[in-house]
Design a protein that fits this description.
Layout lengths: L2 H27 L11 E8 L9 E5 L2 E6 L15 E6 L1 E9 L4 E8 L4 E6 L4
Parallel strand pairs: 1-7
Antiparallel strand pairs: 1-4, 2-3, 2-5, 5-6
């Protein structure tokens, strides 16, 4: 094989190799949250509607484990993981949630996280 053949085949071999590794990296990065079964995980996004604006900051818990807090309120349903929401990824299933405000208001109940989806949960004033 002379040098002119190498000039033709080398870019083809490089492109194929680069494409293979780019594809491989993508396949692994999609499964970071649960490499054994990524469909078994889902997201939940808690958000507060405008009726809760007077209660101060609200802290959110799933199965008695702190998830995060929010001072933001929304008029419309925000997208999953939007600024001001409290969102997390968990294994699909039913979870007990609690929310506690600075003013002493509390909320609790059960939420279901569905694998491969984002469940939004709106927190409303109790009045």
């Amino acid at each position: 094989m002379n040098l002119s053949h190498l000039k033709i085949f080398l870019p083809i071999i490089f492109t194929f190799t680069l494409g293979y590794f780019a594809y491989s990296d993508k396949a692994f990065s999609d499964n970071v949250s649960n490499p054994k079964n990524p469909v078994n995980t889902g997201n939940i996004s808690f958000y507060r509607d405008a009726s809760t604006s007077g209660v101060g900051k609200v802290k959110f818990y799933l199965n008695n484990v702190y998830v995060g807090s929010s001072k933001e309120t929304f008029i419309f349903k925000p997208s999953c993981f939007a600024y001001g929401t409290v969102a997390t990824t968990r294994i699909a299933g039913r979870y007990y949630f609690q929310a506690k405000s600075d003013s002493g208001d509390t909320w609790d109940g059960y939420v279901t996280i569905i694998g491969g989806e984002c469940t939004s949960y709106r927190l409303r004033s109790k009045l």
